[in-house]
């Protein structure tokens, strides 16, 4: 509910503003320790990324309420946004976007961690789990760049708005595609913020979609084996449908004005 989200936002904002906040029967304030505020910035930013790789990866719609709160907090407390991006880029280099290359002498385990895989006791997480986590984080990022906290003053620009999404898309299409990962991330990104990007960039965006269809999808196909075609097929049909209908569907779960009256 919108009212619940406002409560969450106010509590976080009050805490970061140095006010005393009640939580689990305790009263806490960042002023209780010289590094209190820095610690809370760090842990809060980390928690938002964890929401992306956890909650959003399983429930795509949850990207929007989480993103709108973070967007509002970012506007009032820019440090949270900076640290959020640092956590996000470390956990999901594809959010930069960046595909780390393996340098000579780098142990395989360390390299897998650089690629975003979780490695415990030399055991690497399964590909499906890895892709799900990356998907959740990209979806959260794609939601953040298009949303603003509706109760802010709206005077300044969005702290990390759609121009960053446009840049992400352009940089992504300049990278050599990776099997599995590239198709999935492009689809996630376009599903979540494609409709916002087309409103902002119009004809330029459609040119990009045409480029994806004609030039980039064949390049993804070239590096994709028969068993990895699922996501690529979904990307193909999504792009084709959008180009045919000359519109990008509004993402499922987007927060409408009526949501804020609940």
Automatic annotation (TrEMBL):
Required for the export of mRNAs containing poly(A) tails from the nucleus into the cytoplasm. May be involved in the terminal step of the mRNA transport through the nuclear pore complex (NPC). GO terms for cellular component: cytoplasm; nuclear pore cytoplasmic filaments. InterPro entries: GLE1, GLE1-like_sf. Belongs to the GLE1 family. This is mRNA export factor GLE1. GO terms for biological process: poly(A)+ mRNA export from nucleus; protein transport. GO terms for molecular function: inositol hexakisphosphate binding; phospholipid binding; translation initiation factor binding.
